[in-house]
Amino acid sequence: MGQTVVVAIDGPGASGKSTLARRLAARFGLALLDTGALYRATAARVLDAGADPADPAAAENAARRLEPAMLSDPRLNDEAIAAASGVVAAIPGVRAALLAFQRSFAANPPDRARGAMLVGRDIGSVVCPAADVKLFLTAAAETRARRRAEELRGRGAAAIYEHVLQDLNQRDTRDSNRRVAPLTAAPDAVIIDTTGLDADQVFGQAAALVAHALEEKEWL
């Protein structure tokens, strides 16, 4: 068959990128890696050790010792771990330690998949700059906060919209201003503003781009 295809999806929190990635991966038979789980697992390991997520040495050590099995830990959805993940993700040594893991996944997708789909904040710009498809999802901060609050409430967690909005704005500022691999759309990425779109509309736009890439690789 054709060569492996790589799809990169980036964007800020609650922009809809993870939901889109799961649907696309299932539709086209691509191996999926939500790279946010790498940073959450790193943060969880730091917290479990009783260390400070802002401590570069502790965070880098946790990142270097990360194992794939840790990515399925249900605790990674906890708000405390999610908050700590934003801190460890800003540490250059952590990003460097996890870079090889991500690129290896993209180059050698598991289970003989026809390609890999990576979701994060710097996939198209840093991790996989030669990806076949680069998408950058965004939405108004208020829309993203409403979505995140609804998601948290759906899990049974208490969520106050104003607090969620504040957290998202702080994360956006930290991610966009960090020295290494800041949150930004790659120059050749297709930007999709999901503010006024439902999930099916976003999926339709993205699926057409992925299908075209697979056709060029002779997978379809």
Provide a descriptive summary of the structure in words.
By secondary structure, the chain is α/β, with parallel strands linked by helices. It is built from 9 helices and 5 strands. The chain has helices at residues 17-28, 36-48, 56-64, 79-88, 92-107, 123-127, 141-154, 161-177, 199-216; strands spanning 5-10, 31-34, 115-120, 133-138, 190-193. It has a 5-stranded parallel beta sheet, with helices on both faces. Helix 2 (36-48) crosses helix 3 (56-64) and helix 2 crosses helix 4 (79-88). The longest helix has 18 residues, at 199-216. The radius of gyration is 17 Å and the shape is globular. It starts with a strand and ends with a helix. The model has no long low-confidence stretch (mean pLDDT 93).
SSE arrangement:
Elements: E1 5-10, H1 17-28, E2 31-34, H2 36-48, H3 56-64, H4 79-88, H5 92-107, E3 115-120, H6 123-127, E4 133-138, H7 141-154, H8 161-177, E5 190-193, H9 199-216
Parallel strand pairs: 1-3, 1-4, 2-3, 4-5
Which properties best describe this structure?
220 residues, alpha/beta, 5-stranded parallel beta sheet
Mean pLDDT: 93
Radius of gyration equals 17 Å
Total beta strands: 5
Strand order of the largest sheet: 2-3-1-4-5
Strand % is 5-15%
Gap between N and C termini, in Å?
A: 9 Å
Shape: globular
Going by helix content, strand content and strand pairing, the class is alpha/beta
Question: Poorly predicted ranges (pLDDT <50, ≥5 residues)?
Answer: none
- Percent helix, as a range, is 40-55%
The H-and-E topology, N to C, reads as EHEHHHHEHEHHEH
Instruction: Give the oligomer, counting copies of the same chain as homo and different chains as hetero.
Output: single chain
Discrete helix count:
9
* Biggest beta-sheet profile: 5 strands, parallel
